[in-house]
Design brief:
Number of domains: 2
Strand order of the largest sheet: 15-18-19-14-13-20-21
CATH class of the largest domain: Alpha Beta
Bound molecules: 1,4-dihydronicotinamide adenine dinucleotide, magnesium ion
CATH superfamily of the largest domain: Aldehyde Dehydrogenase, Chain A, domain 1
CATH topology of the largest domain: Aldehyde Dehydrogenase, Chain A, domain 1
Largest sheet: 7 strands, mixed
Distance between the termini: 74 Å
Helix content: 25-40%
Number of helices: 16
Structural class: alpha/beta
């Protein structure tokens, strides 16, 4: 296969990095080089922020009507739709996820996200507020300004859409840094943004590494806001850099260790299917993955038996094959990290019910793994693994369950399986997490908010809630005397 190359998008032109450096990008299913991409660092960040600032203050973006911005967003959605097969294949090659998932989830959700914010662009408005005295008081919702967006490798194109959609709808300008492992679909999206007629400098795309390009963005004094998705560790660094530089606004979508709770009165076949989807979708490289499985004692053995059988029957293989259900982990680093956790689970006394080792000799494949855990204190219960590993525990009753489900530094999501609607809603209320799925798992819609409690971050992406991240409110007082 011919090697691909990628450059930096600054002010609607494609550039090499000022340093002239390129870095290699790997296909994780073959461990072979997929291509190379220009490596942005602080000098390129300066150029991109300058372009974004000019586009924000002086460009047609500012004077254009909100409806016209919406039309451009709609054209972006249509162009992605037109090229969806090509984009799905590119995503699969670069990330290792199955083509069925890129075609069935990543691409449709990406298109819907741009469509949703296309429709929202001209519905962003302030209010008039009744105040004491003889005044007219009203609010304006203004764009936040120049926005840095730093995204991860697990849903490369979709994460770009979640970030760009609301930022563009509100009239911000953007410097987007894709993850170093997976820059290719973001760069292809850059070409489509130009084709859609996005004015100069509105979106700039800089592939590069975290400590160089990423940190330069988070530290930049002329960036008004930074939006980040990735590890909790780096989220904390970003917040520190924002504080040290110019107090730029911050939103963070970070790690998770979601409880997935199966009550004895659930439809157990549906719960098994949902549990599989909850942990093995995207090779488990999902921040909201249901990685801590709590099964009510009375059904524990039969449930785990079924789960083991189903996990062992999942097809792990060539991500480009339509029959494949689980592909490769994104990188050697993630592959090693997950295998390390699997060994730690075994060493700390967890029993392997399924998987527990790599699959295939070449490529970063891991078998769908189910652990039966003797206690809540295991490392694999506490730490985010970000791989196809589910750790099962059992519980006695609701009181026992509630405290244990919430015993985590994270709070991104949770699953509840029960036919007792009162119980399910009570637990949905009591779990400290930004999303709760009842009798389903990993459902997404551009209209529904997503984000974390506790160390899973703050700020809500998607829906109208995301507009809060990219606007600021001005209160205007007018004397009527
Ligand atoms: P990471 O947090 O290091 O990388 C995510 C993004 O942040 C990338 O674009 C990266 O270049 C950038 N970045 C890294 N260091 C930075 C810095 N000092 N300043 C600014 N930007 C920086 O995540 P990594 O190392 O790829 O994965 C480690 C773990 O993080 C995973 O095993 C998983 O547990 C978690 N993770 C969570 C994600 C989520 O969706 N919440 C996504 C990716 C990783
Ligand atoms: Mg990292």
């Amino acid at each position: 296969m011919a090697l691909r190359t990628g450059k930096l998008l600054i002010n609607n032109e494609w550039y090499e990095a000022q340093s002239g450096k390129y870095f290699d990008v790997i296909n994780p299913a073959t461990e072979e080089k997929l291509g190379s991409v220009a490596e942005a660092d602080a000098a390129d960040v300066n150029a991109a922020v300058k372009a974004a600032r000019r586009a924000f203050e002086e460009g047609p973006w500012k004077t254009m009507s909100a409806r016209e911005r919406g039309r451009i967003l709609h054209r972006i959605a249509m162009l992605i739709d037109k090229h969806k097969e090509e984009l799905a294949e590119l995503e699969t090659l670069n990330n290792g996820k199955p083509i069925n998932e890129t075609l069935g989830a990543d691409l449709p959700l990406t298109i819907e996200c741009f469509e949703y914010y296309a429709g929202l662009a001209d519905k962003i408005h302030g209010e008039t507020i009744p105040v004491n005295g003889n005044f007219l008081n009203y609010t304006l919702r203004e764009p936040a300004g120049v926005v840095a967006q730093i995204i991860p490798w697990n849903f490369p194109l979709l994460m770009a859409a979640w970030k760009l959609g609301p930022a563009l709808a509100t009239g911000c300008t953007v410097v987007l840094k894709p993850a170093e492992q997976t820059p290719f679909t973001a760069l292809r999206l850059g070409e489509l943004l130009l084709e859609a007629g996005l004015p100069q400098g509105v979106v700039n795309i800089l592939p590069g590494f975290g400590p160089t390009a990423g940190a330069a963005l988070a530290m930049h004094p002329d960036v008004d806001k930074v939006a980040f998705t990735g590890s909790t560790e780096v989220g904390k660094l970003i917040m520190g850099m924002a504080a040290k530089s110019n107090l730029k606004r911050v939103s963070l979508e970070l790690g998770g260790k979601a409880p997935n709770v199966v009550f004895a009165d659930a439809d157990l076949d549906a719960a098994v299917a949902g549990t599989l989807r909850g942990i093995f979708f995207n090779q488990g490289e999902v921040c909201c993955a249901g990685s801590r499985l709590f099964v009510e004692e009375s059904v524990r053995d039969s449930f785990l038996e079924k789960l083991k059988k189903e996990a062992e029957s999942l097809v792990v293989g060539d991500p480009l094959d339509r029959k494949t259900q689980m592909g490769a982990q994104v990188s050697d680093e993630q592959f090693q990290k997950i295998l390390g956790y699997i060994e730690k689970g075994k060493a700390e006394g967890a029993k392997v019910l399924a998987g527990g080792e790599r699959a295939r000799d070449k490529g970063y494949f891991i078998k769908p793994t189910v652990f039966d855990c003797p206690s809540d204190d295991l490392t694999i219960i506490k730490e985010e693994i970000f791989g196809p590993v589910v750790s099962a525990l059992s519980f006695k009753d609701m009181d026992d369950l509630k405290a244990r489900a919430n015993k985590t530094i994270y709070g991104l999501s949770a699953g509840v399986w029960s036919r007792d609607i009162g119980k399910a809603h009570r637990l949905a209320r009591d779990i400290k997490a930004g999303t709760v799925w009842v009798n389903c798992y990993n459902c997404f819609d551009a209209a529904s908010p997503f984000g974390g409690y506790k160390q899973s971050g703050f700020g809500r992406e998607l829906g109208e809630y995301a507009l809060e991240l990219y606007t600021q409110v001005k209160s205007v007082w007018v004397s009527l005397d």
